[in-house]
Amino acid sequence: MYLVYFVVTPNPMIEAHNLTKTFKDKKRGVITAVDNVSFTCRPGQIYGLLGANGAGKTTTLRLLATLLQPTTGTCVIAGHDTVRASEQVRAQVGFLAASTALYGRLTAREMITYFGELNGMGDDAIHARIKQLAGELDMHEFLDRRCDKFSTGMKQKTSIARTLVHDPAVMIFDEPTLGLDVMTARAIVKFVRRCRERGKTVIYSTHVMSEVEKLCDIIGIIHDGRLVTEGTLPQLRERYAEPDMEEIFVKAVGGEAAIAAALNR
Known about the structure:
alpha/beta
């Protein structure tokens, strides 16, 4: 008698197909910020999206979060099209943008509560969620202080909490540790790892290659609007014959000259 085991792979929570976004500029004409980008991300998986400034990374994240509509191509999140069912998508997504924006006259608790109410949560659910997030992000010390008195790390933790207060299935982080001290950055990386362990679908964008190596299950590198390579860290190391993620990145985008040319456009 033989026993046969089947490994069930969860369906993708994010399915991007040929996403393209163009903008019109008076001086430069039509600019293609995102050029036929396709990828998937599943529950319990962290997808690292890497790219130099101006590569199209942040525009791609904004397309996923429904802040922009694609010129062509489609994206389906949690079974909903980001254009045709944007409200349903937003209910499933938490998007932490690279720029932190908090209302200084509110306390952290009030800020998180406000976003919980925006997401249709009741008082009891908001209270329970704030207690959970404050514990996980070590916010109790400043939870009832006004945001205008916060350090950069306090602001970022508050931004994460208000972004994820509704406990979304999909979490998008754009440079979440930018400008933070080592201990705060470590706490946020640990928090993101716990999100994966709870089965969340995570898109993680960063310039910190050590974070990529620690966190990301799949890594996609975007350059000049195109997804130039994708794979697990072992796959990329084998493909580019490099053990170091930074060297892999440079090789994937065509070397230092290619990065400089893209930045100077």
